[in-house]
Known about the structure:
Two copies of one chain form a homodimer. The first copy, chain A, is α+β, with helices and mostly antiparallel strands. Chain A has helices at 3-19, 25-32, 40-52, 75-99, and strands at residues 56-63, 66-73. The two termini of chain A are 34 Å apart. At the A-B interface, α1 and α4 of A face α1 and α4 of B.
Amino acid sequence: MDIQLKRGLLDVCVLAAIRSEDSYGYKIIKDMKPYIELSESTLYTILKRLETANMLTVRTVEHGGRLRKYYHITDAGQKRIADFKEEWKEMMSIYQFVTKEDDVNV
Amino acid sequence: MDIQLKRGLLDVCVLAAIRSEDSYGYKIIKDMKPYIELSESTLYTILKRLETANMLTVRTVEHGGRLRKYYHITDAGQKRIADFKEEWKEMMSIYQFVTKEDDVNV
DNA sequence: CAGTAATACTTCGTGTTACGATGTATTACA
DNA sequence: TGTAATACATCGTAACACGAAGTATTACTG
């Protein structure tokens, strides 16, 4: 899949992955895999970006001797998803523009 | 509208704008405006990129004392649009993932 | 006729971003 | 003992959109 095309979806996808339940890096990648594949370096960049934007909070938990960072979505993060739904309507209209056939004067 | 979100659409939108009829820079911007707004610098960058990718050809025409560059879509350009339609299906599945409610065990 | 808007294309610099490469450290399994 | 899986982190890079600024002509407007 075209990198450019999925760019706008990544942030919102990560938020969606932690929406119903707090999650951590490795699990987020696994959960998203069927829909979008992204590398670890990309994910951690995104998580840091979303944290800076106050769309999620982080909590470090020890799990089997290893540290895990659990990410929790905030209200701002929920709002981001809601806003995305609105933006998607614009996306649909653009899609129509791109795919409409030449039926100018049928 | 989020810049990232429209990134993947821009190239294909420009191709769509010249699909039915050869067009030139200023006109392309005007035609796209109701759907997507983009600056001149962005458009000319895209046009050059699409030309390098052999998705369009250029022809310079004098028009009222001024030079105009008319852009013509190639077969590769047409194919790009067709491929986009396929990619859109993936986009839709990602959209589903993002917007699906928590109806795990309704 | 001077001034301004519109048309039309070009170049430069910058900030954002996705990602490959690489590294560290632990647990689990063969 | 070695390798895979888990888990997170950092660095450098290339692609990209865009604002700013520039050049040059035509069209209009007071």
